[in-house]
Design goal:
Layout: E1 23-34, E2 37-38, E3 43-44, E4 49-56, E5 60-62, E6 65-67, H1 74-86, E7 92-103, E8 110-119, E9 134-140, H2 153-169
Parallel strand pairs: 1-8
Antiparallel strand pairs: 1-4, 1-6, 2-3, 4-5, 4-9, 7-8
């Protein structure tokens, strides 16, 4: 939340790169956990999935994401960002989903974000390292196509694609 209240949502101008705006390589994750865990095998059941959503200070739900640091691989950066923003450790990264591009909210950098699909069976997370951040788990339903509305529209569209795959295949992988 800004000093003047909630920020307006991003608009179409966030998706057109102006001249002279430097790129910022970043990484993000669609991190799922099974709604029900088989305690004998510690594997998910077919009862459904939840998706990790990070709420930054203010009412801004989004996927966990962040920039690469010098010398960091995309996967290393993702594990670091998951710990910092969501308190998640031990996430299994399954595959790359998409690379999405847009301006950051301040319009000072062109975000080039490589998103990955990952899973966890941990039911509890550590406290996020980033002040004011919190982790929420939201249903991701393939049958109904239910996905949470996120601050960034391209993240909501990405979740819808994962939910469609879940609907077609019975799993998001």
């Amino acid at each position: 939340m800004s000093a003047h209240g909630p920020l307006p949502p991003p608009d179409a101008t966030h998706y057109t790169r102006p001249d002279g705006v430097p790129p910022r390589p970043s990484v993000g994750g669609v991190i799922l956990r099974p709604l029900t865990l088989d305690t004998a095998t510690l594997a998910g059941t077919s009862d459904g999935w939840q998706v990790a959503v990070v709420v930054e200070p203010g009412p801004y739900p989004q996927l966990p994401k962040g920039g690469l640091e010098a010398g960091e691989t995309h996967r290393d950066a993702l594990h670091r960002e998951l710990r910092e923003e969501a308190g998640l450790e031990g996430v299994q990264i399954l595959r790359e989903l998409a690379t999405l591009e847009r301006l950051n909210y301040a319009r000072t950098k062109w975000q080039v974000t490589r998103y990955y699909l990952g899973t966890t069976t941990h039911q509890e997370a550590l406290p996020p390292l980033e002040p004011g951040y919190r982790l929420e788990w939201h249903p991701l339903e393939g049958r109904s196509g239910q996905v949470p509305d996120l601050f960034w529209p391209e993240q909501t569209r990405l979740l819808r694609e994962v939910a469609r795959q879940l609907q077609r295949n019975g799993n998001p992988f």
